[in-house]
Amino acid sequence: xxxxxxxxxxxxxxxxxxxxxxxxxxxxxxxxxxxxxxxxxxxxxxxxxxxxxxxxxxxxxxxxxxxxxxxxxxxxxxxxxxxxxxxxxxxxxxxxxxxxxxxxxxxxxxxxxxxxxxxxxxxxxxxxxxxxxxxxxxxxxxxxxxxxxxxxxxxxxxxxxxxxxxxxxxxxxxxxxxxxxxxxxxxxxxxxxxxxxxxxxxxxxxxxxxxxxxxxxxxxxxxxxxxxxxxxxxxxxxxxxxxxxxxxxxxxxxxxxxxxxxxxxxxxxxxxxx
Length: 274
Fold this sequence. Notes:
Blueprint: E1 9-13, H1 18-30, E2 33-38, H2 41-55, E3 60-63, H3 69-82, E4 88-91, H4 109-124, E5 132-135, H5 159-180, E6 186-190, H6 203-211, H7 217-220, H8 222-229, E7 240-242, E8 245-247, H9 256-270
Parallel strand pairs: 1-2, 1-4, 2-3, 4-5, 5-6, 6-7
Antiparallel strand pairs: 7-8
Helix pairs in contact: 1-2, 3-4, 4-5, 4-9, 5-9
């Protein structure tokens, strides 16, 4: 693995646990200045302690709930006030939502937390971001994305389908960001089946975590850390990676016309001009 670290400023969302925390710990040990973003204050503080114990330096902590777009806007304002540049923005926050839910912003919770919120954050920090990384998933195979109806999942809600749709959106977003922002390398990746807090609220999901060939958060974070530390010239801009290799996502997650439509629909949904 190359090592491009050394006091880069790296913002990691979804950093309270799982692969987000594992990534923050690894990069901090290598010398990067990491900034942790999480929803739960207690878990965020505990994550900060983990990073401090591993690296000797306490990271900055920012609380934001991606189910509330005003939280994302406030987060962007705070990050802009605190830092002149974000060398690496890691959009890792995400969730599997077990029951249909609508956010205060009027969107199905999964598509907002996993796609619209990071889309908004990335756009609000666009002029300061040096590299963009997005946690996607092989679950994009179960997605059924319709940019003209981002709330389609609510009509016949299936948790894994809604999650897969949001992961399809993640891959398309990274690819379209690479096309629209040629000076900002952008990549998405599949971490594998990782044991995380996703299973905490469902016996069925928890059972699946026990019987599936899951990975530890540290193992799941390996490709993300590799992407953060590899010279962009050696990567395919906008590419989707798994196990440190370029992979071809399913056709519906690699259609540039669909990616452009999603971008326009997302910008309208979060109140951004294209």
